């Protein structure tokens, strides 16, 4: 049964373009999305409406992992990303829906995230913790302005 919902709000010192790209670039996703202690393999990513993605997270300590994937439902460049997620594990049933909203503000980009339909077996507080860690890593990726 999918029941949980988490919501996040952050302001990042960067442009909406950089944040948008970080959500749709496979190498960027593998770098910032897995929570602390996990690695990520992006198996496939077709970042267009109707396109799909597949990835796996692996616990670095135990080596165990879980795979998931979904479909891109809505892409408004530099403003909105909506996609679905579904775990391969039958013990984590249901389809999650995630909406990423971006808005340019005076000091950077306002980022709002809503993830709905989190499987009942995943404690919502663990989902919050994971996203908090991921968003800290996202900031470290998109905020630095490094000249070539």
From TrEMBL:
Domain (Activator of Hsp90 ATPase homologue 1/2-like C-terminal) ranges: 14-143
InterPro entries xref list: ASHA1/2-like_C (IPR013538), START-like_dom_sf (IPR023393)
Q: Which Gene3D superfamilies match?
A: 3.30.530.20
Family the entry assigns? Belongs to the AHA1 family.
Please state what the protein is called: SRPBCC family protein
């Amino acid at each position: 049964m999918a029941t949980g919902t988490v919501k996040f709000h952050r302001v990042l010192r960067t442009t909406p373009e950089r944040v948008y790209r970080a959500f749709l670039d496979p190498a960027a996703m593998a770098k910032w999305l897995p929570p602390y202690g996990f690695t990520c393999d992006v198996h496939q990513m077709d970042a267009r409406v109707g396109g799909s993605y597949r990835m796996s997270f692996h616990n670095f300590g135990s080596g165990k992992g879980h795979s998931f994937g979904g479909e891109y439902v809505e892409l408004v460049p530099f403003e909105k990303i909506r996609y679905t997620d579904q775990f391969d594990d039958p013990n984590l049933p249901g389809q999650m829906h995630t909406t990423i909203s971006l808005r340019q503000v005076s000091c950077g980009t306002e980022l709002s995230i809503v993830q709905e339909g989190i499987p009942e077996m995943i404690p919502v507080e663990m989902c919050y913790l994971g996203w908090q860690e991921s968003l800290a890593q996202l900031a470290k990726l998109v905020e630095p302005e490094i000249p070539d």
